[in-house]
Amino acid sequence: MFTNEVIATFNDLEMLIYKYVMQHKEKVIYMRIRDLADEAHVSTSTIMRFCRKLDCEGFSEFKVKLKLSMDEKSDTLIKSGQHVVAEFLERTQNEHFTTKLDDAADTISKANHVYFIGIGSSGTLAEYGARYFSSLGTFSTYLKDWYTPIHANLNNSITIALSASGENHFTLSHIHMLKDKNSKILSITNNGQSTIAKISDKNISYYVSEEFYETSNITTQIPVVYILEELARRVYEKNRKSH
Predict the structure, then answer these.
(1) End-to-end alpha carbon distance in the chain
(2) How far apart (Å, rounded) are the C-alpha atoms in residues 166 and 98?
(3) Do residues 153 and 182 touch, judged by C-beta distance below 8 A?
(4) Could you count the other beta carbons within 10 Å of the beta carbon of residue 181?
(5) Are 119 and 170 in contact (CB under 8 A)?
(6) Neighbour-count burial for 106-137, b at 16+ CB within 10 Å, e otherwise
(7) Within 10 A of 24 (CB to CB), how many other CB atoms are there?
(8) Tens digit of each residue's pLDDT (9 = 90 or more) over 4-50
(9) Rounded CA gap, 38 and 27, in Å?
């Protein structure tokens, strides 16, 4: 109900209503408009303006929409970790997937430097990936700041870009900047048909069911951890055999 755009239009009195509603949702859905006016210390006309900004004709419709939004959140079903791991393993334990891993590891092993990028939970895993690769002898860097100036030629480098959706615009802009400096791009995404997957030189996709809780993407990242660790181990083996 309460988008950032709508909240930005609230005046001081309407903000008082918003804060009260957010703190007392279970109580508000049973209140009369006069009760809310008294509790929030505003007039009933202010509440009516507040409701209209939320595309509600009156306070009764507002309460119905508020109740529906509360029911939607309470009905969210979260899959067990065991289920999503089984789903991932069932789809990837085949020669096609392992060949992709081996091909990607071969490309990484030939690079002079490995960069990791990502944002949100993908950023956390990008930082982990850089640490894990470095621990196995492939010095890697996590580029946390999207605005880091890059003036060098990255011709002999590879960037490993992590994005569950494959559509994050911050990660996309980062990829464009790195590609412009001649870095190869290996993306790890949930969907091989996503924009990030398509613009990458190589892509590894894991295809698990997307899950959301309210506005948060809670799609499991277990496959990403597996892919990163398996790639690092394969790169280690290739480097060991070449020496």
Answers:
(1) 60
(2) 21
(3) yes
(4) 14
(5) yes
(6) eebbebeebbbbbbbbbbebbbbbbebbeebe
(7) 14
(8) 888 989 999 999 999 999 999 999 999 999 999 999 999 999 999 99
(9) 14
